[in-house]
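Design job #97: recover the sequence.
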């Protein structure tokens, strides 16, 4: 695990939005958006209902120095949008690999934000990964489209526990191989 490498999380910019570290003022919007049952039930870790206190703890953990995951707000305020459309995260695994997770608030669904945020994060590759994995519930077809549209390949089936559903739920596991750092730094011919 690369815990010793986590210090400061970068801001990653795109024309439509910025991916920026969560800040304390985001807790209210996290509580409002993630407390939607449609959001919570498509994640493993969001309880339903989600209290304001739990959202504030989530934001505080996201900024902790000893965290094992970087979590970014999808912030569209630079284009007069919401300061928080959803979140996207990379959890450190081993062997130069991270697991990506994300959710977007329902009022911003079907506008391409999840796909664009994932593409932006993969391009920046802030953990210098060789590969990224994702786990998606089999009844979350929107996320399967986001992943496959960003070049992820389905590896197979598994299951994961969902706090909001209080049950094990069938999943698909996806993988995307990225350029190695040494290859990415080589001059183009």
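Job complete. Output follows.
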């Amino acid at each position: 695990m690369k815990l010793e490498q986590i210090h400061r999380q970068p801001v990653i910019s795109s024309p439509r939005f910025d991916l920026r570290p969560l800040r304390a003022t985001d807790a209210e919007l996290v509580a409002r958006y993630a407390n939607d049952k449609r959001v919570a039930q498509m994640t493993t870790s969001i309880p339903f209902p989600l209290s304001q206190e739990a959202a504030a703890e989530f934001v505080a953990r996201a900024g902790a120095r000893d965290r094992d995951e970087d979590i970014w707000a999808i912030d569209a305020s630079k284009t007069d949008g919401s300061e928080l459309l959803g979140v996207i995260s990379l959890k450190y695994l081993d062997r130069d690999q991270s697991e990506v997770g994300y959710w977007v608030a329902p009022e911003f669904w079907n506008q391409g934000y999840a796909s664009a945020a994932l593409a932006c994060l993969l391009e920046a590759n802030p953990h210098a990964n060789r590969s990224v994995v994702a786990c998606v519930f089999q009844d979350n077809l929107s996320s399967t489209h986001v992943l496959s549209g960003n070049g992820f390949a389905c590896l197979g089936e598994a299951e994961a526990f969902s706090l909001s559903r209080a049950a094990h739920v069938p999943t698909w596991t996806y993988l995307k191989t990225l350029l190695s750092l040494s290859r990415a730094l080589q001059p183009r011919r």
